[in-house]
Amino acid sequence: MSWLLTLGVIAVLIWLLKTFWPNIRQRYFAAFMNYYTTQPNPDMDKLKKDLFSPLGSLVSHDPELRKNNAIKILEIGVGTGVNFAYYPEKSRLVVVDPNPHFASYYNENRAKFPNIQSEEIIVSTAEEMDMVPDNSVDVVVSTLVFCSVGNTEKILQQILRVLTPGGKFIFFEHIREFDTERHGMRRKIQGFLTATGIWPFLFDGCYLTRDMLETIQKAGFSKVQAQRFYNPIDHIVFQLVTPSLKGVAEK
Ligand SMILES: C[S@@+](CC[C@H](N)C(=O)[O-])C[C@H]1O[C@@H](n2cnc3c(N)ncnc32)[C@H](O)[C@@H]1O
């Protein structure tokens, strides 16, 4: 009889975990990202200033926005909204993220940038962002998003669809270790933590073993300028996410 009770308790525990874990994980991850991204990081600041510098000279496809010297930006996987500081004044910002628990952090952040006309988060994956009209944005931004998406190719096709001709896709992503001679051990650890599901479990579906450069190059952009590099991060655990990719692709 007692084994029946034990089985029943285990079954209920598994059911509870399966039902509530995705929500708990999303909540915890949003809080973690908020903590992590609010720590001072001069290297990241420098990197972003450089990455977003093409926005300063961009002219909108939309005559109304052009009159006001403004551009329209779509940021996918916006999270807490860490990139506001790098957007030109008067930008119009549309944002997409599937995790609803980022909304409060994002809203807090956007209130600090009244000169950017930002909208509430559209709760959706970038794969499913069909609500964003074709040829409607001047720039798409993605920072640290592709590590955890379901379908990279589909997102790139969505980005090409929503970008106006000549529009730019600006990206910065952590990727799989690319220097196997000097950092083979890091690559092995990335593989182990991803294959065992430990890292995706802890970091809301993040994979350490992706490198989206080739996929971006093959997606159909007219120009791709990209660079693999090491993002300087002090924390020992986050040495695993220092191999990175940044660049700009043009529709
Ligand atoms: C590591 S966080 C990065 C957040 C923010 N971009 C930054 O640079 O701090 C990854 C973000 O991607 C979002 N995300 C995950 N899968 C996604 C998908 N399929 N489409 C769009 N965003 C996604 C997550 O909810 C999360 O906000």
Automatic annotation (TrEMBL):
The keyword Lipid metabolism does not apply. Keywords: Methyltransferase, Transferase. GO terms for molecular function: S-adenosylmethionine-dependent methyltransferase activity. InterPro entries: Methyltransf_11, Thiol_S-MT. Pfam families: Methyltransf_11 (PF08241). One of its GO terms (biological process) is methylation. This is Methyltransferase-like protein 7A-like 2. It comes from the Eukaryota. Residues 74-171 form the Methyltransferase type domain. PANTHER family: METHYLTRANSFERASE LIKE 7A, METHYLTRANSFERASE LIKE 7B.
